[in-house]
């Protein structure tokens, strides 16, 4: 890849952008009524993601439920955006 593409974020490919987020706190919006915040440990070509130090936010009929998890594996098919 040309050096100019690295310095210009608008020219980054999606997987390159996700790769730059490894080790960072990210906010994931799932297709269900869940949002997940955690530190990205890794991902694969299908954008399945492993996060640690995770907080899961879910909207339920009773209100907002917050769940803390040490680690989670997310299926890339269920991720709306990150």
How would you describe this structure to a colleague?
- This protein has 82 residues and is mainly beta.
- It has one domain (22-81): SH3 type barrels.
- It is 15% helix and 52% strand.
- The protein has two helices and five strands, in the order H-H-E-E-E-E-E.
- It has helices at 3-7, 14-20, and strands spanning 25-30, 34-43, 49-60, 63-74, 79-81.
- Strands 4-3-2-1-5 form a five-stranded antiparallel sheet, with no helix packed on it.
- A hairpin with a 5-residue loop joins strand 2 and strand 3 (49-60).
- The chain is globular.
- The chain starts with a helix and ends with a strand.
- The relative contact order is 0.21.
Major sheet: arrangement of strands: 4-3-2-1-5
Supply the number of helical segments. 2
Q: How much helix, percentage-wise, in residues? A: 10-25%
Can you tell me the number of structural domains?
A: 1
- Describe the largest sheet: 5 strands, antiparallel
What is the count of β-strands? 5
What is the chain-wise order of helices and strands? HHEEEEE
Shape designation: globular
And the CATH topology?
SH3 type barrels
- The radius of gyration computed from the alpha-carbon positions, rounded to a whole number of angstroms, is 14 Å
CATH class call: Mainly Beta
